[in-house]
C-alpha cells in the first residue's frame, strides 16, 4: 500500500535541514517507484526522493556508495533518513547528474562515445555481487541481498501466468509453443549461483550527457540481483526496436569492460523475450504497457527465429 506524497512545503522543510539557501522545491513528474522532488539553491540542483511504501532507502544508499567507490558515475547521496518524522517516509537527498538524457535529446556530437562509456559503466555495475536474486531487500541495511535465494526461484516466479496469458494475445499455437521452448532454454543456459547488481530499468532515459560528454547514470530505484547481462536485455527491450544504434554502441562499450561470448549474446536475446512475456501479465491493470510488451515479444520472436533458427 502506498502512502500519499508529501506536499512541497513539507519537502522544503526537510531539505532545509541539509541545504542552505534553498530557493525552490518542486515535484518532478517522473518516477514510478518513488516520489521525486527537485530542490534548487544558488547555483546547485538536488533531488529528493521519498519511498511511497513503508520501507527504507538503506540498501539503495549502500548501492550508490559502492558504485561511486568503483568509479561508476551516479548521483552522490547527500543525506538520507530511514524514516522522516514529518512525512513518515524514508527520504534520500542526492546531488544532480548534469545535462539531459539521451532519450530526451540525442547527443549532437560524440553520441557513439557517450553511449560506449555508458556501456562500460553498466558493466561495472554488473560486477557488484549480490546475495540472492530479485528485488533488493530493503530491510537489509548492510549488504545487498535479493529477496529470492536462487536464480530458479527468481526466473520461475510468475512464469506460468506469463505463458498462460500469451493465449490472450495474437499468437498462434505454434508461436506460443516456440516461445515456451525458448524461455525453457533461457532458464537452462542462464542458470547461475552468482547474482550481480543490475540497474533494473536501464535504457537511454537514464543515461545523461552534457556538451558532448557523458555525465552519468541516474535512478537506482529498480535495482535487483540478477544475471550479469540482465541490464543489456532491459536496454534491448526498451531501446532495441529495429536494433538501434543506441543499443549497439552500449553493447560495444559493455564488451570493452566485460567480454561477452556468443552464448552470452544468445542469452541476452532470450532474456529479453522472457522479460517481454512477463510484462504482458499487466494486460488488465496496464493494457497499453502490456500491448507494448506484446509488440516487443513478437518482434523478438521473429528476430530470434531469423538469427538462430
CATH topology of the largest domain: Aminoglycoside 3'-phosphotransferase, Chain: A, domain 2
Total domains:
2
- Uncertain residue ranges: none
| Integer-rounded radius of gyration | 20 Å
Could you describe the 3D structure shown?
- The chain is an alpha+beta fold and 309 residues long.
- It folds into 2 domains: 8-95, Phosphorylase Kinase, domain 1, CATH 3.30.200.20; 100-308, Aminoglycoside 3'-phosphotransferase, Chain: A, domain 2, CATH 3.90.1200.10.
- 41% of the residues lie in helices and 18% in strands.
- It contains 10 helices and 13 strands.
- It has helices at 8-15, 58-69, 111-125, 151-156, 159-165, 173-189, 230-239, 245-257, 262-279, 287-308; strands at residues 24-27, 35-41, 44-50, 77-81, 91-95, 100-101, 129-130, 133-136, 146-148, 195-198, 207-210, 213-217, 224-226.
- It has a 5-stranded antiparallel β-sheet with strand order 1-2-3-5-4, sandwiched between helices. A 5-stranded antiparallel β-sheet has the order 7-10-13-8-9. It has a 3-stranded antiparallel β-sheet with strand order 6-11-12, covered by helices on one side.
- Helix 3 (111-125) packs across helix 8, helix 7 runs antiparallel to helix 8 (245-257) and helix 9 packs antiparallel against helix 10 (287-308).
